């Protein structure tokens, strides 16, 4: 069984699924939350596994999103995944959140949109966006970056492909010819599908990677009034 989870956005989502058959729907759990993933994640895993009579010994692989996203959320997910992998002696695979979104757009789009490129975007603080461009097959065409609407309107003028992610609406406002793809309600479901494909060797030219956090920008931190202390705001 594969256990996949995402804590890098405004939710904590889990997916539990066998590697075979490849199209079997995963068991899912998702809870909207901007903070509190550290306290919620492990109890949610225990509840999901208990509800479907899955034991720790039934797990064979773990997968986790690596960002970009909430600075604290990304750290929490990766730390929990590393701890479980170490305790259970399981292989652990990391996937960029933008990559998972692009995979979801490929997986869910209509046949008429099969040849369209993809812009995956995550809303960041202020008017900023985490963005990465992909071709119609979901292969990255550029490194992920921090951008904003004005820069994207300039760099992708006339773009008529698919937009996916929490930043898609902001991109649509400046890229009117683009089409909105369906963003998954629980990102862990798409993460599990992508991880299952990679584990089974269904994506030529790709390989599994251990999780390394991708932040793209420093955390939002302010100095406390007390010397030597720092207050960290979760982005």
From TrEMBL:
Region feature (Disordered): 202-235
Keyword annotations: Transferase
GO BP annotations listed: tRNA threonylcarbamoyladenosine modification
Segments forming a coiled coil: none
Positions of the Gcp-like domain: 35-138
Record keyword Ribonucleoprotein present: no
Pfam name, any one: TsaD
Domain of life assignment: Bacteria
Alphabetized SUPFAM superfamilies for the sequence: Actin-like ATPase domain
Record-level GO cellular component terms: cytosol
InterPro entries referenced in this protein's UniProt entry, alphabetically: ATPase_NBD, Gcp-like_dom, T6A_TsaB
PANTHER family linked to this entry: TRNA N6-ADENOSINE THREONYLCARBAMOYLTRANSFERASE (PTHR11735), TRNA THREONYLCARBAMOYLADENOSINE BIOSYNTHESIS PROTEIN TSAB (PTHR11735:SF11)
Protein name: tRNA (Adenosine(37)-N6)-threonylcarbamoyltransferase complex dimerization subunit type 1 TsaB
Organism for this UniProt entry: Iodidimonas nitroreducens
Lineage: Bacteria, Pseudomonadati, Pseudomonadota, Alphaproteobacteria, Iodidimonadales
